[in-house]
Structures are given as structure tokens and as C-alpha cells.
Amino acid sequence: MSGHIVRALPTGASTCVQSSEESRFKQDLRASRDSPCLSLRGFARSSVITVTAHFSNGRVVGTVTSPFINEASGIAASRRHSNILYTHNDSGGRNRIFAVDTTTGHRLATFYIDGAHSHDWEDIAVGPCANNQAESCIYIGDTGGNAGGEANRLYRVKEPNTIPRDHGQNYHLPLDSTLMYSWNQHDCETLMVDNRGEIYLVSKRHNAHGYVFHVPKEAWGTHQNEYLTGGVHLPLNTGDYGPVGGDISPDGRAVLLKTYGHVYYWDVSDHNYPAAMAHYPQTLPYHGERQGESVCWDKDGKGYFTLSEGSHQSLWYYQKY
């Protein structure tokens, strides 16, 4: 099966952020035109309206004390259940996810994903099931390169009907579908799903010079390797290796992207995320964490959570106003 190409041309950098990174952005954008991943010349034009978002400076809403959660590499808010986050461990973990209470950080239940393998799970997302928009699914990205070679595999499971609150007992969820892909990138820690069930991956590179790729939802269940092309270059120059996580808002109109030192925001009005993310983002409030790789919107898109890898880590929440 052929890969899906996203065609977009940025129309100008956003002025949400004024910093020394903007001059580097322009240099990076010019360089991206000569990148083997994408030539932006001749691609469809996408209009981007700059909208400044306002969020609180953040507060700790809980502490993840479970000894089983010590390398939280991704978080995602349930769409079916209030005050529930799903998370998982990084490379070396088992094929399981955890349900966490957003008001305390306590682990409520552990769900083993039957039929899935854990090579290097890096991110998790929640969105409509691609084959049934009325149902909510959990998407898991076995996308990392830390365990020696990339699995390049996505898993999809339906959200559980209930979240047991019995002090972290074990349960099982059947695998709904698998998607295999290949590309010219070597690491990825960001999996995002929009409100239509469309998937976006962001590669991880030095200075956060990653690329945004669209994975068509029609690739689910084909048992074929989907080759991804047409990645759009990110206008970031952070000095570290990233991005390390991201999420699309429940209404599909905003994107969060996280590096080790920042949380970035894009307003997106037309579902053309790669085109929007080719523009310079707004920087949001963020309290530095030990090794913060996780970010997600809350269930209603009224704020965002962050969580670090490590034991007994604080769960931070930043409310929109």
C-alpha cells in the first residue's frame, strides 16, 4: 500500500512568541525546503489564523505513587470516563496500560493488551475508533528506537466500559487492530489522534527538528506495511532531543507538543495539522520535570496535564482561562 502524502505550505510564521528562536525558525524553514523528507514548494496553501491561548501557571493535582508506574512515557485522557488518564511505561515495559485518577494520581486498574507486544512503547492517545466514530479507542505507539531497532507498530483497543476502582487489579483488553508502518525517520515519541480518528506521528530528532507525518486511518487492519512520506518540518530549535510527546484537543482544534523543556501550542481550525505546525508555535506554561515526556489535554479540552518518568512523580495540571 502506498503512503499518504500531506501537502501543505506555510503562509508565514505566527507572532505568538517573540524570542531568539524565531530567527532560527526562518533558517530552519528555508533548510526544510531542501530536506529529503519534504519539498514545500508547490504544495497546497493553508491559511493559519494566530490565536493566543491562555493557561494557568499550573498546579500539582496528584502524585503517581504506584511502584508499577516508574517510566511514564505517555498519558491520554479517557473520553468515556471522567477524571481518568491512561499511561504506560517506556521501553522494557510489559504490554499493559494503567488507569490513573486525575484527582489523586492513584492507579485504579491495570489493563493488559492481549495480542500486543511491547518493544518500545512511547506514547498513547485516545480518540474515535477509526472504523466506528461512535466508539472511543485507545491508541498505543510502539514507535521508539531505544530498545534496538524500531517496531514501527501502532495498536488500537476499545476503551473499557468501566474503570474498576479496586486498588489496581489486573484486567485484559482485546486488541482491536494493528497498523504497521515504515518511514525514513529513526525514532518517534509522539502519537496524536484527532476527533475523526486520523493519526499523526512526530519524529524525534536533535534540537527537536522533527517531522509531522499523517498516517491514514484506512491503513488499519490491512496487514500491509504503510510507507509514510511527506513529513512536514517542525520550526523548533530547542537544543535537546525531541519532541517527546503531544496531543490533539478533543474538538480537534488545537495541538500540544512537548519537548524536555517546553510545551508548545498550535491553534488549528481546519484539521490541517502539518500545515499549522509548520508555523512557529506559542509557548505555554510548564514547570520543569525530571524527565517529562508526557502531555495531554483533559477530557473536555479545558486544560492539559504533564507527567514525568520516574517514581513518585507529580501530576501537573494547567487550566485554560
Notable traits:
five-stranded mixed β-sheet; 2 helices; globular; 24 strands; disordered N terminus; 321 residues
Q: Would you kindly provide a written description of the structure presented here, covering whatever features stand out?
A:
The protein is mainly β and 321 residues long. It has a single domain, classed as Neuraminidase (6 Propeller). The chain has 2 helices and 24 strands. The strands form 6 sheets. A 5-stranded mixed beta sheet has the order 2-3-4-5-9, with no helix packed on it. A hairpin with a 2-residue loop joins strand 6 and strand 7. The longest helix has 12 residues.
Helix and strand arrangement:
Blueprint: H1 21-32, E1 59-64, E2 72-77, E3 84-89, E4 96-101, E5 107-114, E6 121-129, E7 132-142, E8 153-158, E9 169-174, E10 177-182, E11 188-193, E12 199-203, E13 205-206, E14 211-215, E15 225-227, E16 232-233, E17 241-242, E18 245-248, E19 254-258, E20 263-267, H2 273-277, E21 282-284, E22 292-297, E23 303-308, E24 313-319
Parallel strand pairs: 5-9, 10-15
Antiparallel strand pairs: 1-24, 2-3, 3-4, 4-5, 6-7, 7-8, 8-10, 11-12, 12-14, 13-17, 14-16, 18-19, 19-20, 20-21, 22-23, 23-24
Spans of 5+ residues with little confidence (pLDDT < 50)? Answer: 1-47
CA(first)-CA(last) distance: 44 Å
Give helix % range: under 10%
Order of helices and strands: HEEEEEEEEEEEEEEEEEEEEHEEEE
What is the count of helical runs?
Answer: 2
- What fraction strand? 35-45%
Based on CA atoms alone, the radius of gyration comes out at: 18 Å
Overall pLDDT: 86
Would you identify the CATH architecture? 6 Propeller
**Structural class determined from secondary elements:** mainly beta
Q: Which strands sit side by side, in order, in the main sheet?
A: 2-3-4-5-9
Sum up the overall morphology in one term.
Answer: globular
- Report the top-level CATH class: Mainly Beta
